[in-house]
Every structure is written in C-alpha cells, then in structure tokens.
Amino acid sequence: MQKTEFIQRMVGIPWVNRACCLDACDCWGLVVLYYRYVRGIELHQVAGYEAGRDFLTCYLDEVVFWQCSDVPLDDGIFVGYVGNRAEHVGLIVNGGALHSRGDGGGVRYDRLRAVEKMFTRMEYLTYADYRNTACSGAG
C-alpha cells in the first residue's frame, strides 16, 4: 500500500485502546499497521500491550528497537511527552503527523507543528531491527 493510500484509508478510523486493525487502532496500533502495510515490516510487539498494560510500560519495552533522531524524519515516529512522561506516539508521513488520539478521537493527519504544541517535549525516532540505546529522555 502506498503512503497516501494508507493515510486516506486510516483517517477517521476510531481510536480503541490496544486495537491494531484497519477498523480501529490506538496510537501504537497505527504505527504497527503503517509498518506492516506500507513498509512491509512486522514490528516487535510486547505481549503486555494487548493485555492492557499502561502506555509508558509498553513504550519502554518497545523503544529499544528505535534510534533517536535530532529531527523528524519521514517514516519515523514522534513521541510526545507531558513533563517527563511519554504520553503519545505517532508517525511522520510526508512531513505531517499521522496519529490516533483517544478521548473520543481517532486517526488524524495534522501538521507536525500543531502536534508539537500539544506536548511539553517531542522526541523523534527511526526504526532499527536491533537493540540500541534509547533516547536520553525516555522514561
């Protein structure tokens, strides 16, 4: 599937906690789906994610498969922090932010700058298929 097809297919899909399918997804589920259908990569997924563990615990288990970037890169992800706590993750696609928000929301495609304003700090990461050092601010 091409990037633009994926964006068109997913925008408006409802946010559902721990969902990872083309009919509903949460923020991490959207990342998994993008990598599966657009990049052809099956991301590592911890068992606790589907079991409903909190986002921060799951994030800390998954971030070891990603490398930090000083700038947002296409096909990478962003992690939004409130204070020192990772609260949200989304994709950087065609220079914008593709993400799935809770609280009655769903998948959206926004300007990255607008998403950056929602958080006290952002980190940018790219996928790596080996363990690496997590970003300095993780956790």
Number of strands: 8
List the uncertain runs: none
The count of helical stretches stands at 5
Task: Return the string of H and E elements.
Answer: HEEHHHEEEEEHE
Largest sheet: 6 strands, antiparallel
Over all CA atoms, what is the radius of gyration? 14 Å
Ends distance: 34 Å
The helicity comes to 25-40%
Strand-residue fraction? 25-35%
Strand sequence of the main sheet, in spatial order? 3-8-4-5-6-7
Helix and strand composition category: alpha+beta
**Per the principal axes of the C-alpha atoms, what is the gross shape?**
globular
Mean pLDDT: 85
Describe, in plain words, how this protein is organized in 3D.
There is one protein chain. The chain has 139 residues and is an alpha+beta fold. It is 26% helix and 29% strand. It has helices at residues 3-10, 27-37, 47-50, 55-62, 112-116, and strands at 20-21, 24-25, 66-69, 77-82, 85-93, 96-100, 107-111, 121-127. The longest helix has 11 residues, at 27-37.
Quick description:
With 139 residues, the protein is α+β, with helices and mostly antiparallel strands. It contains five helices and eight strands, in the order H-E-E-H-H-H-E-E-E-E-E-H-E.
